[in-house]
Automatic annotation (TrEMBL):
Organism listed in the record: Triticum aestivum (Wheat)
Protein name according to UniProt: NADPH-protochlorophyllide oxidoreductase
Domain of life: Eukaryota
Keyword Chloroplast attached: yes
Molecular function GO labels: protochlorophyllide reductase activity
EC number per UniProt: 1.3.1.33
Stated role: Phototransformation of protochlorophyllide (Pchlide) to chlorophyllide (Chlide).
Family listed: Belongs to the short-chain dehydrogenases/reductases (SDR) family. POR subfamily.
Amino acid sequence: MLFTLDLASLDSVRQFVDAFRRADMPLDVLVCNAAIYRPTARTPTFTADGHEMSVGVNHLSHFLLARLLMEDLQKSDYPSRRMVIVGSITGNGNTQAGNVPPKASLGDLRGLAGGLSGAKVCNMLTMQEFHQRYHKETGITFSSLYPGCIATTGLFREHIPLFRTLFPPFQKFITMRFVWEAESGKRLAQVVAEPSLTKSGVYWSWNKDSASFENQLSQEASDPEKARKVWELSEKLVGLA
């Protein structure tokens, strides 16, 4: 069964949830993975709700989707229910890549309130807050992951041609961190279904031997007070407050 979901519209998110429920299907695992990346944009673009596009698509619509579908996840009798939010190394400031300008940061949250930047930090803070609010009560596993540098992905389609040409060989032969799409998909599948990856509140990563490990979140991405504030502000921005 095919459902339509446009993450640039909060109304579309609500319509998707209504359609999913009318189909009377169980929800065992929810994966929030969609993202846009517009590094060369000279002017901002906005969602149907007036939010800056990257924050609206990468964070706010996923936040609304996850909040609404928590009810369905809790109803599932699947023994290993999970919610997975795909993060990024660029949103984790305790890594080298996370400090490459422009550095992802939420500052004092005025940028988020105005719809500006820091969507990947929001993703990881949201996962942490879901864990704090719901894991003990529901038994649902909440986790995030960085599946590796997928340098040939279409995510970079709006970058300059020179970057698209040089970035894959740079990751293959200089950093040695290149990951094919198939390998990143395998890693995501592990977080979704692997019995050994059921620990909640974890940000999963993989080493050069493709072995998973619990990565340490940066101070900002694991700040409980900032996670609470992002949650409450996001509730207001999507109309749940």
